[in-house]
Amino acid sequence: MMHPLRKHIEEIISLTDEEFEFVLGHFEKISKRRHQYLVQEGEIVKREYWVLSGCLKSYFLDETGKEHILQFGMENWWITDYESFVKQVPSKIYIDCIEDCDLLYINFENREKLTASMHKMERFWAKKSKMGRIALQNRILSLLKNSSKVRYQLLLEQYPSLFQRVPKKMIAAYLGVSRETLSRLND
Amino acid sequence: MMHPLRKHIEEIISLTDEEFEFVLGHFEKISKRRHQYLVQEGEIVKREYWVLSGCLKSYFLDETGKEHILQFGMENWWITDYESFVKQVPSKIYIDCIEDCDLLYINFENREKLTASMHKMERFWAKKSKMGRIALQNRILSLLKNSSKVRYQLLLEQYPSLFQRVPKKMIAAYLGVSRETLSRLND
């Protein structure tokens, strides 16, 4: 059976067996339990994660301690704090596990080495990065333009499985609405 | 004198004279007058622009015809509708000139050819794309977290020259506040 990471990468570029082994050699595997952290505010993030199984969230806390969710992560998704990882500056966000998670990660130096030595992987991540940027642009459009009702419906259409796996209060913290508003939308 | 595009690219990667000539050969120059469009809603965007001189805005119109500004562009900035350009789908936004503009652009096919044949340029745009993603993430954090007063102050610190070049109503349309609110913040 093809390695799930290889299947994922080959959606964008094709790799020989040798090339995939070389790529995989730059990753490590890690398991985390529900509620454990991958990233905490203030640290310099050294790893980009790819989700083998499980579900995570990235979020920040405002001055009142309220949680605002930036991104969820599930199987086949990449997750890290890109600002901290790319610029090697302290993180403004947290990432923790909503379910037990199996992850692969690549550290900063290995990612630099791999992309510098292998044009194909530079191309793969460039594409991923472009898609991430597009998703964020659409999120901004949606935050500026749509009512919470429309934002809820769009999320439900885009990621139906999220609603089975993630508590309602987290959906509310992603959409930027109160739990009470969400309950009304949900009826 | 070094070509401004070369100076810009060499902030991230270094190029020989021959390499820069090869890169430049993939671009065309274009001039636009104030109020002219580069992108209109519904079209499939074929070009990514780099600003030699002038000032532009990208924005979308909501159902009430209200303008929401996504991004400004000035000297040395890249601007296009990335969703439409990357996925070759119809654009949801407009881009037009706030001032007369001189621009370089690269079309979709040339950009694909250039990045496929030249690892350095793939790396350059990958870096640009990562930085764009980080800027959008910070904009989302700011929209979810900060008051309009704080958002105004952050924009003023980050891009002081915008406030000389761009009318107040556009600053308001970027921040997502009314012109009246902006006038109060401005006092």
Automatic annotation (TrEMBL), chains A, B:
Residues 33-113 form the Cyclic nucleotide-binding domain. It comes from Flagellimonas spongiicola. The lineage of its organism: Bacteria, Pseudomonadati, Bacteroidota, Flavobacteriia, Flavobacteriales. InterPro entries: cNMP-bd_dom, cNMP-bd_dom_sf, RmlC-like_jellyroll. Transmembrane segments: none annotated. It holds the Pfam family cNMP_binding. This is Crp/Fnr family transcriptional regulator.
